[in-house]
Amino acid sequence: MLDYTFLKIAWWLIMGFVLILYATTAGYDAGVTMIMAFLRKETDRRVVLNTSAPVWDGNLSWIVFAGGGLFVIWPAVYSTAFSGMYAAMLCILWSLFFRPTGFDYRSKINHHRWRRFWDFGLLVSGGLPVFIFGLAMGNCLLGFPFHFDTMTWRDYYTGNFFDLFNGFALLSGFASLLMVLMHGSAYLQQHTEGHLRELARKLFFIFGILLFIFFSIAGIDIALGMQGYTLIASPVDATLYPADNIVSHTKGAWLASYSVYPWKYYPPIIAYVALMLALWANYVRKVVLCFWSSVFTVGGMVATVGATIFPFLMPSSTNPSQSLTVWNSTSTQYALNIMLYVASILFVVIFFYKLFAFRTIWAKKRTITETDLEENEHHFY
Description:
Number of helices: 15
Shape: globular
């Protein structure tokens, strides 16, 4: 059986990588459908929709993987997050109902109001989950109001849905929206032509600059204004019992953790360098380089949040000593070990299937045009 500490770190890395894959795949199709809703011409909206239509459902497989992994690997985090933020989770779930129906039903009736209704549904199903995930990340840096009864180990979440909408969390939510809008613009440049590609290029510049500003403001707030958490001591090999930690809650603690773990500097550096490269590639019309630079920008930004709060998973603002960390909220060594083998097989199967699917879909022709829609009226949405 593999070492317990190694398994805890390995699963933290795996779950982080899966969330990055989700953000960089489902992220662009959410961005695409948000952009589509504001286009004036029906033909343009159909072209944009069909750039995402062949792959959007497969992209969501990563969030299923992440949800299952959270349930098995960090059950205390799963129960606390899902029970405490139940209203937010339901908002995400209800908004996602519009996703498959929006793609499948939009073109069933050739009527302006009918199609605009589903355009709005796709806008909501793309934007609302992204915004709420951004809110959650922002609140994760601030800490969640929960604690445990040490007699029964029952968790109590003392906040409510509206508490999530604080200043920093809103900043994170809008930054999250800008991130996927930028990424969606990069994707559209690859798979459209003519005026739509030029429009996507202009949008990428706008969203990229705004994202740079929002990300920088959030970083300054974390470094100078926010109270962070420092794990001073934790029980050795603790499993599912989030007690007996020694945690300090002080201003500038998140930034101070970068000195303790110097590797934390890499994600924000990657995010900034990739964003600058993406903006340059966008300016010189190198669409492939722009897209892949956007991928690393998104990955770097998601990784920055995970790296900043490490080793915390859910800090507790009510009782910091009961914060959930990589060390004290994992399943048993046996469960982590077995699931590592099972998940490795599933991960490889999903990853290579998705590569095969993308290659098959875009191998013959990498772009969709108005002519394609006219010639294959019943093939496209």
